[in-house]
Design brief:
single chain; mainly beta; Immunoglobulin-like; 6 domains; eight-stranded antiparallel beta sheet; five-stranded antiparallel beta sheet; 44 strands; about 35% strand; rod-shaped
């Protein structure tokens, strides 16, 4: 077990060491150029020199590096630094800052090229005679000035240049430029948007690789992507190239140039790599021509993944569609200048498969207020339907015309009512563009008005959602899907209607309970100037009232009722039935005519027994208060005589003495 832990510790240490690049300062300048950078017999190399720091420790500011076993993009190559290259391996801490206070001078040619004042310059230069008409090599610029939590990338940068001129010429050409521009590559010209206080917008962000975390193959805070320096040259002409890097203004914060081993290419540049990641893959319908035509070459041989392509010995390789992803890989060409000089130029190609166009017409219903054919579409949800099986890494945007450059919002509201065509494009890959997508907006134009109805207690009712819809869905348990349903209880019933366009609308039918009235009481005021009856009825219904079952009134009060028997009818407005009850109005006659004609011959108060007042006493007086007669409620009444003699016409008074002691007094007329 002890030996196992010893082995495990050794393995972990070795693994951690392998995460970082290593450097070797023992290489001579000649070895760095001939054996590392160029490693080809196609160029005649002379006058190789190098200069750099004079550290007391003897350490150098240049050397050979190896990235084997790390994530660094280059397997090996040359490193030129503004400090000790021994400090260049990762991790990113502590800070590499080793060129202060040693009297390390700058470089005049760099100063003139970049219009700066430099110090701490490392220079590797040599003469060469090219066989072909073009040179190129790959490099990465790394710097401690790349700090993502400061505004340093907006303000500070070290400088470097790859200076080329024909021997004897006066002016240098700088090859360390941002592609297709005359802008030198620096921290301040290649960085993302800096959001720290005092920050700045992005500059040529596509050429910036990353800010580095603690664990990185190099010590530097950030770096560019792999860039290519290139230039046209005249075969057989002697050139001088000067590779120089230096601090600008101060000596703080080291930077370095990494030159890819074996990348000094004396053949033609076949172009930038074509890949999805870089946004320029080979499109499915593209006829791709790769031109390697070079002066002085006697023959050509094209390769795919290191294997000769049968019959491809012309200077131009043409790849015609249809293409497949099986063609992805490295394509190269050997240029035969002589038996000893056959440089190879290469280009990496990625072919994108053709996209399958799925559903390109979409229908949505207008649920947003007015039925005007305008609604909001979720374009993001359309993408997987439009491009089923969309490969990873593709980004899709929509545009309102084939020429528009402004993507539509993913929550897009159409501007043309009912139907509009927009266009889909892959924005990170220029292969797929202006694919028409039809947006259709349907409406629910049918009338579906909410209703309120009543249900009589103990009955059922049929609810009808209306005809002409292709589907119905009621909120009953279980869900019913017919046009009409039968219900037996009050409640709120909702039905989702679907029209021929597939649009939905919810119709609500509110069912309120109703029932026949229960007459609780009839409050009667009688023996008064205005005899009234107030009907007190309860129940779930809405009621109207009548004394003849013909004419109904909303009011519960009946007024000016004459004496007599009445039947009140209470009707439910919603058709749930009619309740009835008899009541009596008691009143005294206002006059009587005892004249022998057989009509109205006696005076009495009727119906007292109907109200339980049959034991009441009735006394009749003349106007002077003389008692003339006592009559009984169930008797025939007073005939207008006293001592069997007719009394004259006039006003007479009565007193109704109830069994509870209450007395009612009023007068009436006797008419002869």
């Amino acid at each position: 077990m002890k030996y196992f832990f010893t082995f495990l510790t050794f393995f972990i240490i070795q693994k951690n060491i392998a995460q970082y690049i290593s450097v070797d300062e023992t290489y001579t300048a000649q070895q760095l150029i001939e054996d590392v950078l160029i490693n080809s017999p196609c160029a005649s190399i002379t006058n190789v020199t190098v200069s750099g720091a004079n550290f007391a420790s003897g350490e150098k500011s240049y050397g050979y590096f190896s990235g084997a076993g790390t994530t660094f993009p280059f397997q090996d190559g040359i490193i030129l630094s503004t400090g000790k290259v021994s400090e260049s391996p990762g991790p990113t801490t502590p800070l590499a800052d080793s060129g202060n206070g040693i009297g390390w001078l700058g470089d005049n040619d760099l100063d003139q090229t970049l219009s700066v004042s430099s110090n701490n310059a490392t220079v590797l230069e040599f003469d060469f005679i090219p066989t072909g008409d073009r040179i190129s090599f790959d490099y990465i610029f790394s710097s401690e000035e790349y700090e993502d939590n400061t505004n340093y990338p907006c303000r500070f940068s070290d400088g470097f240049a790859f200076l080329l001129k024909a021997v004897g010429a006066t002016n240098y050409q700088n090859l360390a430029l941002i592609p297709n521009t005359n802008i030198p590559v620096k921290v301040t010209t290649v960085h993302p948007a800096i959001t720290a206080a005092g920050g700045c917008p992005a500059e040529n962000e596509q050429y910036f690789d990353a800010f580095n975390g603690t664990e990185h193959p190099t010590v530097y805070n950030g770096q560019t992507v792999v860039l290519t320096a290139q230039a046209n040259v005249i075969p057989g002409t002697q050139y001088h190239i000067k590779l120089v890097i230096a601090d600008e203004s101060d000596s703080n914060f080291d930077s370095a140039i990494f030159l890819k081993g074996g990348s000094f290419n004396l053949g033609p540049n076949l172009g930038d790599p074509r890949s999805i990641a870089s946004g320029n893959p080979v499109c499915p319908d593209e006829i791709l021509t790769i031109d390697a035509t070079t002066t002085g070459v006697t023959s050509y041989q094209w390769f795919y993944e290191g294997n000769p392509i049968l019959g491809e010995t012309n200077p131009i390789l043409t790849l015609t569609p249809p293409h497949t992803t099986a063609q992805n890989g490295t394509y190269g060409v050997d240029l035969f200048y002589s038996t000893l000089c056959t440089p190879r130029s290469e280009i990496d190609l990625e072919f994108v498969p053709d996209l399958t166009i799925g559903q390109d017409s979409y229908r949505e219903c207008d649920y947003e207020g007015a039925q005007d054919g305008i609604r909001t579409f979720d374009l993001n949800s359309i993408i997987p339907l439009l491009f089923p099986g969309l490969p990873a890494g593709y980004t899709v945007a929509f545009f309102d015309s084939t020429t528009s450059t402004t993507p539509l919002a993913l929550n897009y509201t159409n501007t043309t009512p009912f139907q509009q065509t927009i266009y889909a494009r892959t924005t990170n890959i220029e292969c797929f563009g202006n694919i028409p997508v039809e947006l259709n907006v349907d409406i629910f134009s049918e009338i579906a008005i909410d209703e309120t109805i009543h249900l009589c207690a103990g009955t059922t009712k049929v609810l009808d959602a209306g005809a002409g819809f292709i589907s119905y869905s009621w909120n009953t348990t279980p869900i019913q899907t017919t046009q009409s349903i039968t219900i037996d209880s009050a409640g709120t019933y909702e039905v989702i209607l679907e029209n021929a366009n597939g649009c939905l609308k919810t119709k609500t039918i509110t069912v309120l309970p109703s029932d026949i009235a229960i007459i609780q009481n009839i409050e009667i005021i009688d023996l008064a100037e205005n005899n009234t009856a107030t009907i007190i009825a309860i129940g779930d219904g809405e009621y109207v009232y009548s004394l003849n079952e013909i004419n109904y009134q909303e009011s519960i009060v009946f007024q000016n009722l004459a004496a007599g028997e009445y039947t009140v009818f209470v009707k439910d407005k919603n058709g749930c039935g009619i309740s009835s009850q008899i009541f009596y109005i008691i009143d005294y006659p206002k006059f009587f005519t005892p004249n022998g004609d057989g009509y109205n011959e006696t005076w009495t108060i009727k119906n007292l027994e109907k109200k339980g007042l049959e034991n009441s006493k009735i006394y009749i007086f003349d106007r002077y208060g003389k008692l003339l007669k006592q009559i009984h409620p169930d008797g025939t009444g007073w005939n207008g005589t006293f001592n069997e003699k007719p009394l004259p016409s006039g006003d007479y008074w009565f007193v109704l003495e109830l069994a509870n002691g209450k007395k009612i007094k009023n007068h009436f007329s006797l008419k002869r």
